[in-house]
Every structure is written in structure tokens, then in C-alpha cells.
Backbone:
């Protein structure tokens, strides 16, 4: 009688186990058989009702049944687990042999390309790259560059000031890359030969001004550096950059607080028929500001102006990119218009170098 009951239960449980379609159903089978109130667990309670001579054999049969059920549950669980994993892998399958979509192709922004070209040309002449923070203090952006307090040139920069902090200091967004001249002279020993490309900020917006734009600064500090070195460097730069071997340059006297004497450099061009062409065609185009570093600036950096002298120059990167690549409106540089980026962008592997070629 007892035997029959066990046999019947075995058939039922193993059948249910086999039929379980997922982990939840299988767990229900386990609880129904081996749980506290499960059918197999319940058999043990029958034990006490049996005559003592039958108890041992019955107990062994129940234990065997429990082992069998446990093994069947484990096997089914493993099989279901494999099936679930297979289903998940099948669902998440990615065909890595598919070609990438053509839209995924990126390009180098003309500003990055121009900076790379500038670095390649000055790198060839022995210049290193220096940089500094976009958020500056008054000392580096103005005072150390020989802008006296209240000097009108400070106002001309249309500075973005940050709110005053607890210490009463007012930081600002640097209005030019010149403060990195100060940082470089205060942290490196001459001879110094650096270019400083980077972002600059002024509160201005129209066809030819954006509140954020880029400049590159040039700085050479040594003991016997003069204005003809400055002219030679800049001339070599514009000739290589614009790809015009005999491009003429012209220096006009100018004023910057941090240079003495100061000059603006023009390059030859033509404006015939409203079209701007770089080359020796009789007309002139202003391209950058430059000069010999003012002794006050050298002094402010803790160097002796009787020993050290040098030259500096500053140039707008957007401006020279527009001139070289025929980009008419400055504001379009920062609109992230995909069609513009595709049109004016450069191939990622087209790395500019003086020997390998710049671009177009
Ligand atoms: N910092 C000047 C500006 O933003 C540009 C400049 C002019 C930099 C002459 C120089 C320089 O280093 O010598 O307008």
C-alpha cells in the first residue's frame, strides 16, 4: 500500500518536473514536492502511523524518492537555464560583419585642422606648445601684461567677469591667449620658444565676432632676440600656411600694452571682383599683431629685462581658417550644422605636416 503511494507520487512529480516550461513553473513543482507542506515531506508524517517493523523500509523509500526528485529538479533547472541563455543570446545577436552606416563618418573641424597646421609649421621651427586656463585672474590677463589699472585697453576687451568670490577676487574668462605668456615666463627658464593655441572670450556677437573664439600666441624669450627674428618667423609661417612661397609681408606700427615696439603685419592680397585672393597682387590684408616683449612684462615675470628680451605675436585662428578655406561667416563655425561640417571638415587621417603637406 505504502509502496504504491510512493510510486504514484514519483510518477506525478517527475512528470510535472519534466513539463515545467520555465524557472517559475519548476520552482512551483519543487515547493509542491519538497517544501514544508510538500507531498514528499508529507510522507514522513505517515511514518509514525506505520507498525515499527515497516518504518525502516518506508523511511528508506521516502529518502530515495527525495533524492530522485532533487536530482530531477537540478537537471531540469540546468536545462532551462541553458535554454534561457540561448534565447537571450539569440535575441541580442549583433551581426558584426555588417558594414558601418555611411552617416557614422566623422570629420575634423576646420579650427582643429588649422591648429594642427599651425603646430606643424612652428614645430618645424623648434617651437613647443604651452597652455593655460580659460578662467584667469586680473594679474595674468591684464596687470602683468602692462595694462595699468583703469587703462582704456582693458575696456576694449569686453571682458566676461565672474561674480566676485568671498575673498573679493573677480576672476574672468581670458580675453586673449597672452596671459599664458606670463604663465610660461614664470614657470620656464629662457630660452623660451612656445606657441599657445586656445580659446578666448569677449562679449561680442556679429558677422565677424563670436563670444568664444580661438587665438594662437607666439612667444620667444632669449638674450639676443630682435625684430628681424620676429619678422622672419612670421613670414616663414604665412608663406607655408597659405602655400605662397614668395608671399610679401608688411609691418605697420601699432600699439599693444605688452609690446614695445608694436606692429601689425599685413600680407599681400587682391580683392578684384569682390573675391579675396592671398598673393602678391598689390593690396594688403591685416593678419596679426606682434612686437618686442615690453620690459615691464619681463620684469613682472621675475626676469631681468637687461638680460632677457624677446618677441610675441597673436593671431585669430578663425580668421586665418576663413581666409585659407574660403569660409564666409564666422558664426557658422560654432553652429554644429552637419552639412557645414561635412563640407568644411577634414578627413581624420589627413594629419598636417610641413613635409607631408598641410591641406588643399
Ligand atoms: N593679445 C592681443 C589681442 O588679443 C593680440 C596680440 C598682439 C598678441 C600683439 C601678442 C602681440 O602677443 O605681440 O588683441
Residues:
Amino acid at each position: 500500500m505504502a509502496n504504491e503511494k510512493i510510486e504514484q507520487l514519483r510518477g506525478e512529480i517527475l512528470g510535472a518536473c519534466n513539463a515545467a516550461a520555465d524557472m517559475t513553473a519548476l520552482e512551483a513543482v519543487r515547493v509542491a514536492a519538497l517544501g514544508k507542506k510538500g507531498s514528499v515531506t508529507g510522507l514522513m508524517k505517515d511514518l509514525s502511523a506505520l507498525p515499527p517493523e515497516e518504518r525502516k523500509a518506508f523511511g528508506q523509500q521516502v529518502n530515495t524518492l527525495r533524492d530522485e526528485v532533487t536530482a530531477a529538479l537540478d537537471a531540469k533547472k540546468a536545462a532551462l537555464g541553458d535554454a534561457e541563455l540561448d534565447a537571450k543570446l539569440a535575441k541580442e545577436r549583433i551581426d558584426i560583419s555588417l558594414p558601418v552606416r555611411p552617416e557614422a563618418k566623422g570629420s575634423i573641424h576646420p579650427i582643429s585642422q588649422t591648429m594642427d597646421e599651425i603646430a606643424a609649421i612652428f614645430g618645424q621651427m623648434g617651437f613647443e606648445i604651452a597652455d593655460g586656463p580659460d578662467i584667469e585672474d586680473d594679474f595674468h590677463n591684464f596687470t602683468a601684461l602692462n595694462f595699468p589699472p583703469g587703462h582704456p585697453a582693458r575696456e576694449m576687451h569686453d571682458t566676461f567677469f565672474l561674480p566676485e568670490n568671498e575673498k573679493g577676487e573677480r576672476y574672468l574668462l581670458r580675453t586673449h591667449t597672452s596671459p599664458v605668456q606670463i604663465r610660461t615666463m614664470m614657470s620656464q627658464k629662457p630660452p623660451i620658444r612656445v606657441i599657445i593655441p586656445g580659446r578666448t572670450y569677449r562679449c561680442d556677437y556679429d558677422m565677424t565676432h563670436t563670444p568664444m573664439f580661438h587665438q594662437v600666441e607666439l612667444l620667444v624669450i632669449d638674450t639676443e632676440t630682435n625684430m628681424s627674428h620676429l619678422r622672419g618667423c612670421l613670414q616663414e609661417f604665412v608663406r607655408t600656411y597659405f602655400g605662397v612661397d614668395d608671399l610679401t609681408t608688411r609691418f605697420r606700427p601699432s600699439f599693444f600694452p605688452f609690446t614695445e615696439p608694436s606692429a601689425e603685419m599685413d600680407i599681400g592680397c587682391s580683392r578684384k571682383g569682390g573675391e579675396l585672393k592671398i598673393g602678391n597682387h598689390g593690396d594688403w590684408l591685416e593678419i596679426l599683431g606682434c612686437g618686442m616683449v615690453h620690459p615691464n612684462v619681463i620684469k613682472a615675470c621675475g626676469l631681468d629685462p637687461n638680460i632677457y628680451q624677446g618677441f610675441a605675436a597673436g593671431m585669430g585662428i578663425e580668421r586665418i581658417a576663413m581666409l585659407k578655406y574660403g569660409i564666409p561667416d564666422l558664426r557658422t563655425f560654432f553652429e554644429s550644422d552637419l552639412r557645414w561640417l561635412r563640407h568644411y571638415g577634414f578627413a581624420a587621417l589627413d594629419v598636417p605636416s610641413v613635409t607631408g603637406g598641410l591641406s588643399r
The chain has two domains: 2-91, 109-344. The first helix runs from residue 2 to 19. The mean pLDDT is 92.
